[in-house]
Please model this.
Amino acid sequence: MKDDDLQEAFDKLWPTWSSEMAAMIYADIIQVMDLILLTSIVDNRREIERIKPNYYTGLRELRPLLTGQIRVRMQNK
Model:
């Protein structure tokens, strides 16, 4: 794959698919739609890997507020 992020995403998905893929290749059922689906799954994995660090950082920052350790005071206008 030309995109390093796509290659990394594909590499993370491959262990799950390898046994199923062998069965599909043997049965000759890989069609164009299967390849389109595979491409979209890899692209989705790339996006998940891209946003995951920001998600966990944001969650860590919000945890004190969500658990009531920090109280927010609303100012009257």
Notes: The radius of gyration is 21 Å. DSSP finds two helices and no strands in the chain. The helical segments are 4-27, 32-66. The chain has a mean pLDDT of 78.
